[in-house]
Amino acid sequence: MLEILLGVVTLYAIGVTIILFRTSSEAEDAKQDQKAEYSRRQAQLDATIEAKADEAMRLHQTFQKFVPRQFVEHFAKSGSESLELGRADEDNVAVLFCDIRGFTSLSERLSPQELMHFLNSYFLRMNAPIHQNHGFIDKFIGDAIMALFDSPQGDDATKASDAVNAALEIQTALALYNDHRANSHYPPVKNGIGLHFGDVVLGTIGSDDRMDTTVIGDTVNVAQRIESLSSYFDADILASETTIVLANTKRPYEYRLLDVVRFKGKSINVPLVEVLSHLPDVQKAQKLKAAQEIQTGMALRDKGELDNALAHFTSCLNDFPGDQAIVHHIKICEQALADKSWDGLVRI
Fold first, then answer.
1. What is each CA distance from 291 to 114, 144, 245, in whole angstroms?
2. Which of 48, 80, 238, 333 is deepest in the core (most CB within 10 A)?
3. Host H or E run for residue 103
């Protein structure tokens, strides 16, 4: 009887053990399933967060293509990174305008798709010299570029020097681009650059549903007027004398004075210079030699000796044929002699 009882107890113990083992195993399996589900959900969350972060980064990068990062950084200098409508700050900056010469006739020979391809190819090459010299493109205006130089850590001389360096490097980039175009049997491209330094207002304009950043002020207008004369003087780079003198405190640049002009609608005179540092040595030497004669003729003109000034410039044109600066002075002297009430101002 005792043996039977012991057998029953043993079987009961074995059964309980089996039940406990199964329960423990099932609990462990459930725990593992919970861990796996948690890991799966965490991985999904991480993937979602990463996708959202990538999307935010892409949107941020896209936004920067329309609103220059430097614009936001400029406002940050004043203690705000906000771009709310109507925000405005004043600052001294160097302004660069660059325009393709003869663009209208060039565009008429291209299909719309070819035109877009050409402009993007051209702008791509003009972009690097600007950014490498601490500038940024404020806007594209058709075939023209408007760029600002507002080095956060730089003084006024640095800003002016950055703009001049960028202009010189743009001409170098354009020469390389024309070599590439020649290999493809395309005609060369020529542009003109205007530089001016001064105070501007940087801000945001528009409406509640459409806003844009902008730069306004007399400095911008004068820079654009200067660039418009590059074709008239057949010059690659023109600048106000104040800009080049300011830049020269950082490094020497070669240039010549063309004239002191009064832009239409303006009340101040602007000494206008042609930057020569990028030109071949022979061409540069010729222009610098002509510059001495130009100043002699200007001195005669400013003293009212118009006949002597005209004779001087006419003689100079024989020595420097094709120099458009001399052609300009002959034209001004002829106009002054024809206008007995000429006030001595050169209005362009």
1. 41, 29, 17
2. 238
3. helix 103-108
Q: What is the pLDDT of residues 154-169, one digit of tens each?
A: 899 999 999 999 999 9
Contacts of 107 (CB under 8 A, 6+ apart): 115, 143
Q: Are 287 and 273 in contact (CB under 8 A)?
A: no
Question: Which residue do the tokens 């890991």 mark?
Answer: 39
Closest CA to 135 of 112, 105, 159: 159
Greater confidence (14 vs 317) lies with 317
**230-279 pLDDT per residue, tens:** 999 999 999 999 999 999 999 999 999 999 999 988 888 999 999 999 99
The pTM for the full model equals: 0.79
Q: What is the dihedral of CA 68, 74, 80, 81, to 10 degrees?
A: 20
Extended beta strands in the chain, E state:
88-100, 135-141, 144-149, 191-206, 211-216, 237-240, 255-262, 270-275, 346-347
Instruction: Please give the radius of gyration of the chain, using alpha carbons only, rounded to the nearest integer.
Output: 35
Contact 298, 313 (CB under 8 A): no
| C-alpha distance from residue 25 to each of 31, 152, 196, 230 (Å) | 10, 67, 82, 88
173, 165 contact by CB (below 8 A): no
